[in-house]
């Protein structure tokens, strides 16, 4: 049984703008699956549909055979997920530790246990105790990303979702965060679905990659097979990503 | 060709549509206030923001309103040799009308805008999405505490505004207009009725509700980006002020209507 199933998912916005045009995809249990695509191709919308933030127009999304539209089981459905948002989405009005405690509280643990879990998770993602009582606006982007990851794993999810996890970070911090995500996925043994436009992130985290273009999954496979996939769009995407990587390396040198 | 009737019709339909949305939003907000879970920490935080931090501006407005009212009444009433009625005019005007309305409008400017900006920013930075994915109902976490704090703290603010406003009138009357302290106080007490104060407090609770609902509504449905949040803030202040003025008339008619 697949952990997540997208069945012919369609989504349009007012004015007739079609964003998802029949997405079908299966993510297996324990897999780290990457959805790769250009900016504006509908990756984030797909993630919002998966978490029920946006309703789908037609088709269905299932997690462990529970439909996203099943209102009677919506709490059970949502408890399977935890999401690391592109902009971190830490609550401004709470300190870093309170953000993580708030995440842990969704599993109805008692107050002292929540605090203990929050401290453990914050230390696990490499944050020092001195930042625990600071507010999100008082720490760097990399630290915020770590704190958001700590909040995400404090929920003890079965499925971790990462929306552009390295967006806005410098290459060194991005590398550190990628390592942290990989270690987290491995140590927790969870299913992970990552949305990114960055082939380097995809190659680093992948078990399998799916390419999204014009609202459809056009190819699924491994990064090493992209170059000779036989699909023009996939090969062009691979080539363009490599050119950028090489230019960045030359500039850095 | 430009058709003014079509434009008017379109505007009317969109206004009615917006009013319907606000009504449903308010209904959902009230329902969230009545059913658990309750986020007590958030309610307390909102009560502090709504009530405690509004005290200076509300107090300042009330004292000057009371002072001006005493001066204006004196100037007008001397024409009819009715200066003795100043104390009763000040206390009735402040408790029935000026206290609640001025406090409501000041709170609308201060709090409604801050609610809209805070919730709007949370929308933009995906914090509301984060709440939803955690299985937390944003209405219970964001809207209900603000509605409760508005309804519970606004009457206290108005009560304080009433006291300070009456004190303002007293100060001007006794220091500038040569009223004796004892007779001013006894006239104030004699002419003040319980219904004057109670109607003001009921109005305050309604105004607090208006400020919270319009702030939350415009923040919740703000467009993305800095401009969207800016527009939401402006709309929240304008709508809650209009809401206060309409509610003021309706409640006045209800309490004192002939």
Structure description:
The complex is a heterodimer of chains A (253) and B (258). Helix content of chain A is 38%, strand content 25%. Chain A is α/β, with parallel strands linked by helices and 253 residues long. A 6-stranded mixed β-sheet of chain A has the order 6-7-8-3-9-10, sandwiched between helices. A 4-stranded antiparallel β-sheet of chain A has the order 2-1-4-5. The model of chain A has no long low-confidence stretch (mean pLDDT 89). In chain B, helix 1 (4-34) packs across helix 6. Chain B has one domain. Chain B is mainly alpha-helical. The mean pLDDT of chain B is 94. The N and C termini of chain B lie far apart (50 Å).
Please name the defining characteristics of this protein.
heterodimer; A: 253 residues; alpha/beta; 6-stranded mixed sheet; globular; B: 258 residues; mainly alpha; 0% strand
How many angstroms separate the termini of chain A? 48 Å
Strand order of the largest sheet of chain A: 6-7-8-3-9-10
Shape of chain B: elongated
> What proportion of the residues of chain B form beta strands (DSSP E)?
under 5%
N-to-C SSE series of chain A? EEEHEEHEHHHEHEHEEH
Report mean pLDDT of chain A, rounded to a whole number.
89
Q: Treating each run of at least 4 consecutive H or I residues as one helix, how many helices of chain A?
A: 8
- Multimeric status of the protein: heterodimer
- Give helix and strand order of chain B, one letter per element, not per position: HHHHHHHHH
Low-confidence stretches of chain A: none
Q: If helices are DSSP runs of H or I spanning 4 or more residues, what is the number of helices of chain B?
A: 9
What's the alpha carbon Rg of chain B, rounded to whole Å? 21 Å
How many strands appear in the DSSP assignment of chain B?
Answer: 0
Strand residue percentage of chain A: 15-25%
Whole-number mean pLDDT of chain B: 94
Largest sheet of chain B at a glance? none
Terminal Cα span of chain B: 50 Å
């Amino acid at each position: 049984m697949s952990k997540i199933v997208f069945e012919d998912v369609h989504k349009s916005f007012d004015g007739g703008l079609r964003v998802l045009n029949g997405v079908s995809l299966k993510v297996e249990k324990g897999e780290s699956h990457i959805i790769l695509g250009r900016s504006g191709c509908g990756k984030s919308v797909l993630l919002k549909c998966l978490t029920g933030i946006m309703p789908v127009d037609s088709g269905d999304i299932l997690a462990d055979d529970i439909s996203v539209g099943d209102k009677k089981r919506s709490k059970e459905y949502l408890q399977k997920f935890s999401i690391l948002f592109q902009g971190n989405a830490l609550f401004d009005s709470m300190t870093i530790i309170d953000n993580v405690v708030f995440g842990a509280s969704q599993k109805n643990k008692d107050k002292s246990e929540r605090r203990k879990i929050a401290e453990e998770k914050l230390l696990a993602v490499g944050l020092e105790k001195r930042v625990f009582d600071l507010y999100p606006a008082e720490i760097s982007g990399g630290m915020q990303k770590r704190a958001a990851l700590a909040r995400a794993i404090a929920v003890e999810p079965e499925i971790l979702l990462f929306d552009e996890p390295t967006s806005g970070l410098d290459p060194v911090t991005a590398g550190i965060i990628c390592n942290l995500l990989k270690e987290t996925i491995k140590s927790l043994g969870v299913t992970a679905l990552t949305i990114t436009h960055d082939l380097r992130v995809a190659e680093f985290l992948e078990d399998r990659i799916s390419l999204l273009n014009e609202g459809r999954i056009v190819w699924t496979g491994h990064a090493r097979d992209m170059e000779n996939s036989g699909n023009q769009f996939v090969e062009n995407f691979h080539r363009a990503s490599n050119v950028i990587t090489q230019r960045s390396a030359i500039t850095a040198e | 060709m430009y058709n003014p009737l079509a434009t008017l019709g379109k505007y009317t339909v969109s206004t009615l549509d917006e009013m319907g949305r606000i009504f449903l939003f308010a209904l959902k907000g009230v329902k969230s206030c009545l059913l658990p879970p309750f986020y007590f920490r958030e309610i307390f935080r909102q009560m502090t923001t709504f009530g405690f931090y509004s005290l200076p501006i509300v107090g300042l407005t009330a004292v000057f309103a009371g002072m001006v009212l005493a001066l204006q009444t004196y100037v007008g009433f001397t024409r009819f040799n009715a200066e003795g009625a100043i104390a009763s005019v000040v206390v009735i005007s402040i408790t029935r009308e000026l206290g609640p309305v001025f406090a409501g409008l000041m709170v609308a400017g201060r709090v409604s805008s801050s609610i809209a900006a805070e919730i709007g920013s949370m929308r933009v930075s995906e914090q509301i999405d984060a709440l939803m994915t955690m299985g937390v109902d944003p209405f219970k976490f964001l809207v209900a505490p603000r509605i409760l704090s508005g309804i519970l703290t606004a009457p206290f603010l108005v009560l304080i505004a009433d006291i300070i406003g009456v004190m303002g009138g007293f100060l001007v009357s006794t220091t500038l207009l040569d009223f004796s302290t004892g007779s001013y106080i006894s006239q104030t007490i004699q002419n003040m009725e319980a219904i004057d104060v109670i109607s003001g407090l009921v109005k305050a609770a309604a105004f607090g509700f208006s400020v919270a609902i319009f702030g939350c509504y415009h923040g919740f449905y703000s467009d993305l980006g800095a401009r969207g949040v800016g527009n939401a803030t402006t709309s929240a202040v304008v709508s809650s002020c209009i809401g206060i003025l309409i509610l003021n008339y309706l409640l006045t008619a209800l309490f004192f209507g002939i």
